[in-house]
Predict the structure.
Amino acid sequence: MENSENYIIRIDIPEVDEYLALRKICGLSERGKEASKIGLSNSIYSVVIRKSTNQELVGMGRLIGDGGTAYQIVDIAVHPAEQGKGLAKNIMQLLMTHIDNEIDPQAYVNLIADCPADALYKQFGFVETAPESLGMYLKR
């Protein structure tokens, strides 16, 4: 990570308002405030990166799931002004360390990758499921 003294990395859950603000500025889909409060509190493992000067949330990533057989990496986001400094890679390294050390190796771990972020996830062993299967979501 570039200039690591400029950032504080913690295993922690972001506050709802800052979570929603970072999602928005990073171009991620909108989430409801109450639903986000519930979802964040049910995280299995969550990483945040803050600026050391003002504690502003500039990066995050979470692991969610059933706690036994199925998990999903979600909310990987780095503020556009902080991208290209290795922060997303640091988030993924911490998530993967937790997965490697705490989760049954037969559990299913997935994510939905926006391009070109798929290149980051491939560095950690993630592969595309197609053509054997396709990632899908309920569009409402």
Q: What stands out?
A: The first strand starts at residue 7 and ends at 11.
